[in-house]
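Ex. 9. Protein: FeoB-type G domain-containing protein.
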Amino acid sequence: MTLFNQLTGLRAKTGNYPGVTVGRSVGIAKSGDVEIAVEDLPGTYSLDPISPDEQVVAAVLAGEMSDTGCPDAVVIVADASTPHRSIVLVAQVLRL
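Predicted structure tokens for FeoB-type G domain-containing protein:
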């Protein structure tokens, strides 16, 4: 089960290959009486988009999507066995 599904209680299907997840999934997580919108974005290694799925991620994080503002928080799920593949994305997100 993905972190998104665990947080929201949904059963969103995901895939780990290019082009399978170009859209965004949105669900609600609850913490006590507070509802938190959780958005699952396509996987990417950089905010310099070269594909449609990477363009979605860059636009959402930059607050450029017409239906949402800038996120209040970001959770990056990275493969710890290959940190060199994710470190660029982590640095770019921290700069935002």
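Check your answer against this statement. Residues 1-94 form a domain with the Rossmann fold fold (CATH 3.40.50.300).
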